Amino acid sequence: MNVVVKNSIRFVVIVLLQSLVFNQIEIGFGIHLMVHPLFIMLLPFETGVFTLMILGFSLGLIIDVFSNTYGLHASSLLLMAYMRPIIFKFYGPREGYDPLKEPSIFDMGSRWFLFVFGYLILIHHFWFFLIEIFRLDQFLLILQKTVFSVIISYLLCIVLQTFLIKKSKAK
Fold first, then answer.
1. Of 29, 65, 67, 85, which has the fewest Cβ atoms less than 10 A away?
2. HSE-CB for 119 with a 13 A CA cutoff
3. pLDDT for the residue numbered 96
4. If we measure between CA atoms, which residue out of 27, 28, 64, 30 comes closest to residue 146?
5. How many Cβ atoms from other residues are within 10 Å of residue 85's Cβ?
6. DSSP string, 49-96
7. How would residue 167 be classed by pLDDT, with cut points 50, 70 and 90?
8. In 24-37, which positions are buried (b, 16+ CB within 10 angstroms) versus exposed (e)?
9. Would you give the DSSP letter of residue 113?
């Protein structure tokens, strides 16, 4: 399948899942289920920073419209899209990334995905809750919401990958 078509379908599916399903679920303890960072993570390795930032802002803005959050998702996805190439470079193999693979848990392995997506989702969630609360005297609440939401969202993203992404046959 063409990369543009595949990522367009992912974009629509993730917007619908986030807006219509996960934003409606109330767990408690300040936990927000956010699976939309998975879209930015799964874009091809050779995607440029500018393209990443435009896609992140667009996705965040659409989710903000459905969620009535006034730019929180757009801001946090924009930061995540900016940090993605930096973290990818830090955890990249010496010979570089294989352009035929995608940055999923199936193609890159669970250890690589654990660290890279873990850092990206941590950055995303921390910025989201920092801007949402916007008070440094509530720093422990920001950390509580960030930690609990990262754990649940991370596990949910792994489950979604098993349903949305086919395992690579080249392994």
1. 29
2. 15
3. 87
4. 30
5. 15
6. HHHHHHHHHHHHHHHHHHHT-TTHHHHHHHHHHHHHHHHHHHT--TT-
7. low
8. eeeeeebbbbbbbb
9. H
48: left (phi over 0), alpha (psi -120 to 50) or beta: beta
> Pseudo-torsion of CA 35, 138, 74, 34, nearest 10°?
10
Tens of pLDDT, residue by residue over 112-151, are: 999 999 999 999 999 999 999 999 999 999 999 999 999 9
Cα–Cα distance for residue pair 164/158, rounded to 1 Å: 10
Q: Are 78 and 61 in contact (CB under 8 A)?
A: no
Provide the residue ranges of all domains of the chain, joining segments of one domain with +.
3-95+103-164
The residue written with tokens 């939309």 in the block is: 36
Q: Which residue is it, tokens 């422990």?
A: 140
44 closest CA partner among 85, 73, 86: 85
Nearest to 149 by CA among 22, 41, 58: 22
* 103, pLDDT greater than 90: yes
| pLDDT (tens digit per residue) in 17-68 | 999 999 999 888 889 999 999 999 999 999 999 999 999 999 999 999 999 9
